[in-house]
Each structure stands twice: as C-alpha cells, then as structure tokens.
Write a structure and sequence with these properties.
elongated; 5 domains; 14 strands; 5-stranded antiparallel sheet; Molybdopterin biosynthesis moea protein, domain 2; Hypothetical protein af1432; 50% helix
Length: 611
C-alpha cells in the first residue's frame, strides 16, 4: 500500500512507493530508501508530498525480475538524475567570480538546459558526474570567441527553436564525441553549436511555419547549408569546422545535399553530426509537430538506417542506453534478449525477454545488468541502391560488418563476391579500401581500440577463408614480401592482403613473419634466389629503419626493391619521400603490380637478347 506523506513528515528509512518527477525529470525512483539529504533536496525542490510504501508491496507490485528469478550479479551503478547534476553545477559556478560575458553565458547555458535536458531524451549519456561540467566548460570556451558569441546571440533572436536545437545538438555532440573517444572535440563541439547558423538568412516565416513546406520553401531551407558555410568562410576561410557543417545534411546512400556525397566520401565528423542533428530534431518540440519519444525517434532512424553510418548510429544508442521495441540486444551478462517494452519516462531501462529461456524483466535501475551492444533490429528493411553505387555499397557493407563485429556476415559477403566479382577487384576495391578506411578512422581517434581490434580479427578470418581460385598457373616469378618493422596486430593482416594480391597476379610469394635485420634480409633473399623484394610499411616510425635496409641492399645486390604504399596516407608518403627514393619504386597495389610486371618483362627481354 502507498501512503502520501507530507515532506516534513517523511522519516529516515522510509521507502518511496512510486517514481517522483519534477516536470519531466526523475527526482526519486520507486524503491529509493529515504535519507536525510534526500529529505533536504525534496524540500529544496518544493515537493510537498511523497508517496511512501507502507508494509509489504502488493503482489502486482513485485518487480518482474523477482517473478522470473533472474539474478543480477553485476556491480551496481547509481543513476544520477540530470536535474541534480545541474543544480550541483549551478551551485559550484555561483562560487566563482565570472566576468559579464561569462556570467551571461552561464545563465544562457543553465536556462537552456532546464528547457531541453531530460533523462527521457538523454538517457544515461549524463550518467558520469564530470560530463555536464565538461559540456559547460566547452560552451564557455567556444563562445569566448566574439564572432561565435555574437552569431549565437543573433540566432537566438532570429529563431528561438533553432537556437535551442543548436544548443541541444552541441550538448549531444559533446557527449557523443567523448563517448567515441575522438580527438578534436573542441572543433566538433563548435561545429555542432554553429551547424545551423545559415538559417539566419532563411525568412522567419518559413522557419516558423506550422504547415508542410512547399517544394519551393524546402529548397530555400536547404540553402541554409551554403549560407552557413559562406558566413563562416567570410570570417575564417581556413576554419576546420567548415567541412563538418558543409556535409552534415549529406547521407550515406548519396541522397543528401548539397553534393550528394556517398559513404566514405562524407567527413567522419559530419557522419556523427547528421545522427545527432536528426535525433535532436525528432525529439524536440518543433513549430510543425510534437516531439517524438526517444525510442520512437531511434526506431524512425533505424527504419532509415541506410542513411547513416551504422557504427556511429549503434554507438549513439549505446551512449543513450535507449533502444526501440524489437531490438535484439546482448546484455552484460551475455544473455541475448529482445526489447518488448519501452516507457517514455525511463526509455533507458527497457523491458526485455531472453531469447533462450523466455524470461521477461526490466533492466534493473541499479544497472547491475545493462546493454552491452545492439545486435539487430527486425524493422530494418533491405533497400536497393542504384547500380552506379554498387561498388561503394559493397565497401560500405564490408566496413560495417567489420566495425559492428559481424564476422559471419563479413565472411559470407566475401565468399559471395568470390563467385560474382573478379578477385582482383574485390581485393583492391573492397578489402584494401576498407582496411585503409579503418586505419584512417583509428588514426583520427574515431574508433575505439576494442572495435579496431575486432575489425582486424574479423578481416584476418575473411582472408583465411578467401580462396584464390583464379590464380594463374604459371608462377615463375618469385617475390619476397617483408612486413612492417612495427610489432602491431595489423601488420600480419596487411601482409596477408598484399600477399594475396600478388598471388592473384601470378607471382610466387615468400611472405616473412617478421622484419629481419638488413643483413639477414639480404642473406635470406639471396638464398631463395629472388630478384624482387616488396616491403609493406604501416607506420611512420618504420621509415627510418627501412632507409638503412634499403641502402644496404642497393649497395650489395641488384634486387628490385618495391614499397607498397596502400597503407600510408599522402602526407606520410610526401614526408618520407627521401627514404622511399632508396627503393626502386613505391606505389599502391595495382600500380605496384604493373611496375613489377614491367620490370620482369624487361628482365626477360634482356635475358633473351644476351642469350
């Protein structure tokens, strides 16, 4: 039974009988044991009455996890309501001496957060005490710039919903880039905050319209991207946030604007921003529609998952800890479950049903069990792509399988392609291209280390399954392949890929497991009677060691030295040009193989002539 007690009559040890809200924010969850500091907070927030559990709960009130005898044995995590964190930060900032600008920005931040910040939208994204303070400090830092400050003040006066959407996008973006672990978070946060400043040049009448936009009005709205880029470029043409803002309305299938970029042609930060931008727009009140509940908004986005980078979309849901009904999840206790119910107030604590045992229970509010990852969602439909996008789509699919940890799907895709595509095309344009993209993401800090390692493990498995049935039968020409000097998990994979490409092109290969000392490499190459040595560097640190090796081999032998540069970016190649010049040539795989064929053709011609 539940009894309503006046707050002044609540005692230490009482148990809250049902959830207590302040507006849309949870103050105290059902089952919370009252302590003196909680009574003080309830009084401070003006709560006059508190629902208190009297006696044993009714049978219908027994938590489902008890009914199904599911054990929650993980460590407990205390969920920290945003409202409490906000109040704590306000108190901390009130003790600081701020100048007039800083005080105004502080007031704007806290006013905006009171309007937009709800657990029902942010889920568990703020469930780290330092995250709110981190966002606040970034806000102060970015808007210390006079131009950015004045621009945001102009936007607030021009269209208040766009201003709040920009603040919301900034908050979500700040949290998301922290969750992913990417570098340059200051630039990304600034891009999130300023992504819609082009709407300063869109008529208020269109922005405030409560009716569906006409085709002409929508074309005007789309111009806000160009307007924003032009405005920023006039202030600072070299601003690193311009490309991010310029591409935030592009889509992974090429259907976005303004340029119709596809897949990996889109800036990495823009791929994050497009997800945050859409989620914010769907879940905040707009002039033309009511907000969607967070789980419903994510369901809409999953219905259109071909528009977004699925790795980032999955990580965004992981940050929020919000998943729609029918999502298949793996929990931290390794159980595979299906989401069967999501409440609007607590979307981050869904009710789930185990696939094997059929037990149904909510995720406990102490998070002793939580979601480890999203496995699938049955609402996702296959979408056909135009033929001109086939290759890009295959690259995109393979990359997604690697990043999402889908080993079976990655192997299955490659096995299918071996029956339908020239193997050289698959190696050069699908596998090599994808590995290069993943390396680039890692170097930019856009990929968690565990996801990078998983991707490479799966790619190893893919290469092990790959059957080179189109190899040429005449393998007269032998080449020794040396890996990168670095001792890294990626080195052997790169060696496998290069080895397979050369075998497909008719070469007999001798791959080395490790990179030997220069004199040892020379001795071994001579013992195998090879004329060609190919080195596959992976990191800048490899180049100095390679320089000494190349010098020695050129001094003491007539072997042809080739360097595969597929896994180096253009800047690295230019930076180490003096080292690479010690080799006979350096190129990416297709060009490297053609050069090797040319060298062998010349050698054979000279041999016949001299004979």
């Amino acid at each position: 039974m539940i009894e309503m007690k006046k707050t002044v009559d609540v005692s230490d040890g009482d148990v809250v009988g049902r959830d207590i809200y302040l507006g849309g924010t949870l103050l105290l969850a059902k089952g919370t044991v009252i302590k003196p500091h909680l009574i003080h907070r309830l009084k401070r927030f003006g709560t006059s009455e508190v629902p208190i559990q009297i006696g044993m709960p009714a049978q219908s009130e027994v938590p489902l996890q008890q009914e199904t005898a599911v054990k929650f044995e993980g460590p407990e995590v205390r969920i920290q309501p945003i409202f409490f964190q906000l109040h704590k930060l306000i108190e901390a900032q009130s003790k600081k001496r701020l100048n007039a600008r800083e005080q105004h920005l502080s007031d704007l931040f806290f006013q905006g957060m009171r309007k937009i910040a709800r657990e029902s939208r942010y889920g568990l994204a703020f469930n780290h005490s330092e995250r709110l303070a981190y966002a606040y400090e970034l806000w102060q830092s970015i808007l210390a710039d006079d131009y950015y400050y004045q621009t945001m003040m102009d936007l607030q006066k021009w269209d208040l919903p766009t201003y709040y959407h920009s603040l919301d996008t900034f908050i979500l973006g700040t949290l998301f880039v922290k969750h992913i672990g990417m570098d340059n978070e200051h630039h990304f946060a600034a891009a999130c905050l300023l992504h819609d400043i082009g709407k300063l040049h869109v008529p208020r009448k269109i922005l405030a319209s409560e009716d569906a936009l006409s085709a002409e009005e929508f074309e005007i709205i789309k111009m806000h991207v160009d307007y924003g880029v032009q405005q920023l470029a006039a202030h600072d043409p070299d601003s690193p946030i311009i490309p991010i803002i310029e591409q935030h309305h592009e889509r992974m299938d090429g259907s976005g604007y303004p340029e119709g970029r596809i897949g990996n042609q889109i800036n990495l930060f823009s791929r994050l921003l497009m997800i945050i931008d859409v989620y914010s727009a769907l879940t905040l009140e707009r002039p033309y529609r009511d907000p969607l509940p967070s789980a419903k908004a994510l369901e809409v986005m999953l219905h259109e998952s071909h528009l977004y980078d699925p790795y980032f979309l999955r990580e965004f849901m992981q940050m929020l800890h919000i998943y729609p009904v029918n999502a298949t999840l793996e929990l931290t206790n390794h159980k595979v479950v299906i989401v069967t119910d999501v409440t609007s107030h607590f979307p981050y604590l869904p009710t789930v049903t185990e696939k094997d045992q059929g037990h149904t229970y909510p995720i406990p509010n102490n998070l002793s069990i939580s979601v480890r990852r999203l496995l699938s969602w049955e609402g996702v439909k296959e979408t056909k792509r135009p033929d001109r996008f086939v290759l890009e789509e295959l690259q995109h699919q393979f990359q997604n399988h690697l990043l999402l940890g889908e080993a079976g799907k990655a192997v299955s895709l490659i096995q299918t392609l071996t029956r339908t595509m020239p193997h050289e095309t698959m190696i050069f344009h699908v596998i090599v291209h994808t590995v290069k993209q993943i390396q680039n993401m890692r170097q930019l800090g856009a990929l968690k280390r565990e996801d990078y390692q998983t991707a490479y493990q799966i790619c190893h498995e893919v290469m092990d399954h790959f059957q080179s049935v189109q190899r040429l039968s005449d393998e007269r020409f032998t080449i020794l392949i040396a890996p990168s000097p670095s001792n890294d998990e990626s080195v052997q994979l790169l060696l496998k890929i290069v080895n397979e490409a050369l075998v497909l092109s008719g070469w007999r290969t001798i791959p080395l497991d490790t990179f030997p000392a220069a004199d040892e490499l020379l001795h071994y190459a001579r013992s195998q009677h090879v004329r060609y040595v190919c080195v596959v560097p992976a990191y800048q640190a490899d180049m100095l060691r390679l320089a000494d090796t190349f010098k020695l081999m050129k001094q003491k032998s007539k072997m042809v030295l080739a360097v595969c540069t597929d896994f180096m970016d253009a800047a690295e190649i230019q930076q180490h040009d003096s080292v690479l010049r010690h080799a006979d040539f350096y190129a990416d795989l297709p060009a490297l193989i053609e050069r090797l064929r040319l060298y062998e053709s010349i050698y054979q011609g000279l041999t016949r002539y001299s004979g």
